[in-house]
Amino acid sequence: MTPAPRAYNVVLDWIEDTLRSGEISIGDKLPSERVLAEQFSISRASVREAIRILDVMGLVRSATGSGPTAGATVISEPSAALAWALRMHVATRSLPIRDLVQARLLLETQSALEAATAPESPGRTTTLERAAELVAQMDEPDLPADEYHVLDAEFHVKLSSLAGNVVVETIMDSLRQATISYVQETVAQLPDWAEVRDELQAQHRVILAAFRERRGGDAAKALRHHITWFFALSPES
């Protein structure tokens, strides 16, 4: 027997329909709990559950209290739900790290090829400048390993964004967030993190130069070496 749909699903379906139709856009506030409960003849608890799910998904931001800032506002953080789901599956070992790394390889190397032929734009220049800043920040000898990983993640996402594919950029951001735990665990077990970091930095510079010079094949090759080299250090490899 098929279980009955949960009451909050009607709110989720309504949100999807109104976003598609343009009745509600990013920046708009949702109707109050009371209004939605009356509109769909469900309890306010069910409405709150729907809003909570949308909050976790990164689709709305909720503010408590009263006044013009209270309630749920539509925002756009598309990687939030995917990143959370991936992290949970990694934590339960239902998604092998090896497969996540392989997914990164496929996405990043293809993005490097696409970026090589992308039109010139001010955005491309800004992204490459930011990537260079990140490499410089990661050069700091006293930079804590955890902060290094955050900068490294941004470096990879920035370069992937040069392909101009928003879906790829979103997935890349989610994958990097999901794999950060295995990166931290790997680094914690390394007796020579300073040497490893120096090698990673050398690899970052090769990758960045290839992107700057639009050498897509070289960028893809350098990324493949970079990702697989580090993964080989992991106990998951």
Automatic annotation (TrEMBL):
Keyword Cytoplasm found: no
One Gene Ontology MF term: DNA-binding transcription factor activity
Statement: the UniProt record of this protein carries the keyword DNA-binding: yes
Keyword line: DNA-binding, Transcription, Transcription regulation
Domain of life: Bacteria
Pfam families per the UniProt record, alphabetical: FCD, GntR
Residues annotated as domain HTH gntR-type: 5-77
Protein name: HTH-type transcriptional regulator LutR
UniProt source species: Corynebacterium occultum
